[in-house]
Design goal:
Helix content: over 70%
Number of helices: 5
Number of domains: 1
Radius of gyration: 16 Å
Distance between the termini: 6 Å
Largest sheet: none
Order of helices and strands: HHHHH
Strand content: under 5%
Structural class: mainly alpha
Number of strands: 0
């Protein structure tokens, strides 16, 4: 994107739409069938359902916000969304390290890099 353009590049919008869809799908899975997403969690423990629903709402809200920002093609809105994604995925890397979850570390690093690329791409000036 160059300085005269006021909309993000198509690849940024496409990946943003994909992220939005994935966030909404994760939220639906957390509401409908949380045990399929959280195999190591005791679903009968007190307060677990509360935390899962809060997580599901967070994912749903992020998906909707990303969808709106993508639809509006708003560089400031997308920037805020991508900063949130980078921060969230770096937090997931830290959690993965603390709990020695190699798959979480790898996937969160991968998603952090993609989110950082989106952040760079949406604000790139030629």
């Amino acid at each position: 994107m160059n300085a005269s353009q006021s909309t993000p590049a198509r690849w940024v919008l496409n990946i943003s739409a994909l992220f939005s869809t994935l966030e909404i799908i994760v939220s639906i899975v957390l509401f409908v069938s949380p045990e399929s997403a959280l195999e190591t969690v005791d679903m009968n423990a007190k307060g677990v359902d509360y935390v899962i629903y809060m997580w599901g709402v967070r994912q749903f809200a992020l998906g909707v916000i990303l969808a709106i920002a993508t639809n509006k093609r708003s560089i400031p809105m997308l920037t805020v969304c991508f900063v949130f994604l980078v921060t969230m995925f770096i937090g997931d890397v830290v959690i993965g390290i603390l709990f020695k979850e190699i798959p979480l570390i790898i996937s969160a690093l991968f998603m952090s890099v993609i989110s950082a690329a989106l952040l760079f791409g949406v604000n790139r000036r030629k």
